[in-house]
Amino acid sequence: MATTVQRDRGNPRYLQIAEDLAQQIRAGVLAPGDKMPSESELMVRYAVSQGTARKAVAELRPMGLIDTHHGRGSFVKSQPPTLRKSSDRFRRSHRRAGKAAYLAESEQAGKAPAVTVLYIGPAEAPSAVAERLEVLPGSQVLARRRLYFSNGIPVEEATSYLPWDIAKEIPELFAENPGGGGIYARLEDNGHVLGEFRETVRARLATKQETVALSLSPGSPVFHLTRSAQTRAGRTVEVCDTIMVAEQFVLDYRIPAGD
């Protein structure tokens, strides 16, 4: 039997259906972790075409209400996005407590973090990275590429680039686990005291490679974040290039109002 939804608001049919489904999610009729009705089920329920049903479900993704996994279908989102507070996650107190930024952030959000190391070793510095490190494009640097998980779900892929002349003197930087506090703690242990972080963020659609790596649906939005870590002496000792699943994060920045 077809389900009746409001038709008098002037909105396209797929938006009306999306709103009806959204209300079911918010009311708990469709609970966290539940699999969403298939396109065939929605076609019958709302007496619409497959295209309309597909567009209705697609509307729920940017609303942050569902996750879609290739080959498995769409599910009601089971976890809220992580609040990433730039003013907190790089505090020296976290490093002294043996917690890298991602671990501290996940604990505060009540989520279980995990990291898979994809590559550690020499690499040629991409042009944008070389500019920030103030080295020639193609110069040898140390690359550390990782895939981060939150409650078992891949949420970001990050590659850190460090100047080779610094990295080669710190053996821990070549280890999968560089020790408590992460690579920033090891840099400071070796005299490179950090004074400032600079982040540049832009939103875009995931590339095909990113879609595969992060188990995303085609056309999913991501944050492309590039961070530079600079010492008190003014040298950039790391550039981190990060791709983040946009719906999994809320970025929070504290900005001084003075001159």
Explain how this protein is built.
Helix content is 29%, strand content 32%. The chain is α+β, with helices and mostly antiparallel strands. Strand 5 (140-150) and strand 6 (153-163) form a beta hairpin. Helix 1 packs across helix 3 and helix 2 (39-46) crosses helix 3 (50-60). The radius of gyration is 22 Å and the shape is elongated.
Termini Cα gap: 64 Å
Series of H and E elements: HHHEEEHHHEHEEHHEHEEE
The largest pleated sheet is described as: 6 strands, antiparallel
Helix fraction, binned, reads 25-40%
Indicate the radius of gyration in whole angstroms: 22 Å
Structural class: alpha+beta
Proportion in β-strands: 25-35%
Helix tally equals: 10
Mean pLDDT: 90
Total E-strand runs = 10
- Unreliable stretches (pLDDT < 50, length at least 5) are none
Sheet with most strands: strand arrangement: 4-5-6-9-8-7
Shape field: elongated
Draw up the topology in text.
Layout: H1 13-26, H2 39-46, H3 50-60, E1 66-69, E2 73-76, E3 82-85, H4 86-89, H5 92-96, H6 101-109, E4 113-124, H7 127-133, E5 140-150, E6 153-163, H8 164-167, H9 182-189, E7 194-205, H10 208-213, E8 221-231, E9 236-245, E10 249-252
Parallel strand pairs: 3-10
Antiparallel strand pairs: 1-2, 4-5, 5-6, 6-9, 7-8, 8-9
Task: Output the keywords.
about 260 residues, alpha+beta, 10 strands, about 30% strand
Quick recap:
This protein is of the alpha+beta class and 259 residues long.
